[in-house]
Specification:
The protein is α/β, with parallel strands linked by helices and 290 residues long. The protein contains twelve helices and ten strands. The protein starts with 12 loop residues before the first helix and ends with a strand. Bound molecules: S-adenosylmethionine. The site of S-adenosylmethionine (SAM) has 19 residues, from loops. GO terms for molecular function: methyltransferase activity.
Length: 290
């Protein structure tokens, strides 16, 4: 299943910008803490009585979170065969993921199937084959922003869940700094990889409309963006490029628009602590039932 890829995922400078964001925000750290609290019991329930377990990561990037979850799953079911499928269109990121798996002693027993394609291409391939692979657990972490039709994506992948399975969606929370920034400045920001911003609140609304059952968890987080307000700061410029999804925040907008965005960031998206400006980048997790 490695043919006809439509280029969709993170490539080029965006890969570096995303890695920088992950380090600066501590986003994966808060996710790991959340997974440690919630997933052992979820996995125990999902896997009870099953003779094998199938895991699917969608838009997994370099797979740090998928590897972490597979470790938790293995520790719950050390003798049950577990297989992993990964759908990730960014060649750079999926190659990094593959390299990390070869170096991870505890993942050597897990056979991985790599799908270096977009969700849309994966869906076409699955439908073309007729006999779809089904999964006990699947995750979509911080990736639904890039879908042309995220509702159709959720519907399709949800249809691949096995009995007692769960689809885990982790996404920027409604009312977080991201939601405020991207809804107020949608016209200026939704011009590149994200053409229509969706928040955790939008996803919740659609899950309700589809009549799907789910649990919702909140994963609070903040990121220090004080440097965005320091004239000439390289760190601040990198943060602003990532937060506005532009190659250069400085070049993309007029001085007036930049001032308005900075004003909103400072006054509506941050709290102040010990002289630092902390941007609310909280997340929401939905655990959607099969
Ligand atoms: C914000 S990153 C999140 C990566 C990873 N889940 C994480 O949280 O570290 C978004 C990911 O979605 C992937 N992506 C973008 N468009 C996609 C598509 N159409 N189908 C599947 N994945 C896509 C990108 O390549 C990237 O890996």
């Amino acid at each position: 299943m490695e043919s006809t890829t439509t280029q969709a995922g993170y490539e080029g400078d965006y890969v570096q910008r995303f890695q920088f964001y992950l380090q600066h925000s501590g986003e994966h750290t808060v996710m790991r803490e959340f997974m440690d609290k919630v997933l052992p019991a979820e996995f125990a329930r999902i896997g009870e009585g099953k003779s094998d377990l199938n895991f699917l990561g969608v838009g997994s990037g370099q797979g740090e979170m998928e590897s972490y979850m597979l470790n938790i799953l293995q520790s719950k079911f050390p003798t049950t065969p577990i297989s992993a499928h990964i759908v990730e269109p960014s060649i750079a990121l999926i190659e990094n993921f593959k390299a990390s798996v070869t170096k991870a002693p505890n993942l050597q027993k897990v056979p991985f199937t790599w799908h270096p394609v977009s969700c849309a291409d994966y869906e076409k391939q699955v439908k073309g084959m007729g006999n779809a692979h089904k999964f006990d657990f699947m995750d979509m972490i911080q990736m639904l922003y890039y879908m042309d039709d995220y509702v159709a994506v959720i519907k399709f992948f949800h249809s691949l869940l096995r009995e007692k399975g769960r689809l885990m969606i982790i996404h920027e929370a409604a009312g977080s700094g991201w939601g405020t920034l991207w809804s107020v400045f949608a016209k200026d920001l939704c011009t590149k990889s994200v053409t229509k911003y969706i928040s955790g609140g939008d996803i919740k609304g659609e899950l309700d409309k589809m009549g799907l059952k789910y649990e919702q968890h909140s994963i609070p987080n903040t990121m220090d963006i004080t440097e965005c307000f320091v004239e000439g700061s390289k760190l601040g410029a990198m943060l602003l490029d990532f937060m506005t999804d532009q190659d250069s925040f400085e070049k993309a907008y007029s001085p007036e628009t930049r001032a308005k965005i900075l004003d909103l960031l400072r006054n509506k998206c941050c709290t102040e602590k010990n002289g630092r400006l902390l941007f609310d980048c909280s997340l929401t997790c939905f655990l959607v039932h099969a």
